[in-house]
Amino acid sequence: MSAIEACRTAALGGHVMRCQDCAHIDIAYNSCRNRHCPKCQAAAAYEWLEARRAELLPVPYYHVVFTLPAQIADIAYTNKAVIYDALFKAASETLLTIGADPKHLGAKIGVTMVLHSWGSALTHHPHVHCVVPGGGISPDGQRWISCKPRFFVFVGVLSQLFRRLMCQRLAAAHAQGALQFFGDNAALHDAEAFRAFLKPLRRTKWVVYAKRPFAGPDQVLSYLARYTHRVAIANSRLVAFDGARVRFKWKDYRRDGKARYGVMTLDVHEFIRRFLLHVLPDGFHRIRHYGLFANANRVENLAKARALLGPPKEPAPMQDTVPAQPTPSTPCPCCGGRMILVEIFEYGATPKAWSPPPTPHWCDTS
Fold first, then answer.
1. Is 0.90 surpassed by the pTM of this model?
2. Of the listed ranges 73-77, 158-162, 166-170, 217-221, the one predicted with least confidence
3. Distance from the CA of 337 to the CA of which of 134, 165, 286, 353 falls in 20 to 30 A?
């Protein structure tokens, strides 16, 4: 929270720009660059998306979501690194295993996965969004195998395998002493109690959701732009703050139509508590790539996939999915003139009292 509070304030230093023509002064404070800050993700998202734009294959892409049951989400809060990592591995193994199964696709596929831990009301709701190409490379590496049009695989098959793999990983983590339990869950330290905790979860239906395929590369990038570098709540959703309560927009997915959208009011301490539920452990990677997209062999795999898919069709001009980064010489907001750097001030310092120079004789209106 301290990084976000200090973001774009004098506490982090900054610089002063002055217009060469009208002497307009702009003071800009440095950003915190914390990955949980809603104001500091635009540049990182832009760079990441440009890299993904170059890696898109000329095939349909699918969107699959794996969600943890509420009971596991409850213990995930105090075991984020272990359970979130298990979520990534179980979901990726599910997709790669089903994709490689000749009964379904019989090919090596690629997956890009993004972790989200929140719902619209800022409650704890861990899930991973997966972007999967509609096909993969055959086991012998000699051809590209496409999935059925507008269909990837049955979500029921994904759900069952994901449930089994996730429960296996949780049981292994508990046996290794990697899980910690507090409060109402303290009794789960006992091995027998944890087995009893998992038993009903092995029989319930786990939520795996597969959306319709994206319409094209623009839609894939638009989706990635919205999801990859998103934080728990964007500034655009904040409505009001009166010193004691925060009001923000939220969406109730259980309702339809206009009733789905509303404004929630929370005590400021509860709002901050919910926001902090979604702070990730230091060094934890919330965007990961598997299969054909794994970092170790991504370049070679993509080159082979493109060769098997044949020469690409003439691409249509792609629309920008994120705003272009500002150029170093941002024009003056008053006259459009050239802004120049006149001062850099350090952390905790304040800029000098800048006053405009004498008005040039050609601007004198007296």
1. no
2. 217-221
3. 353
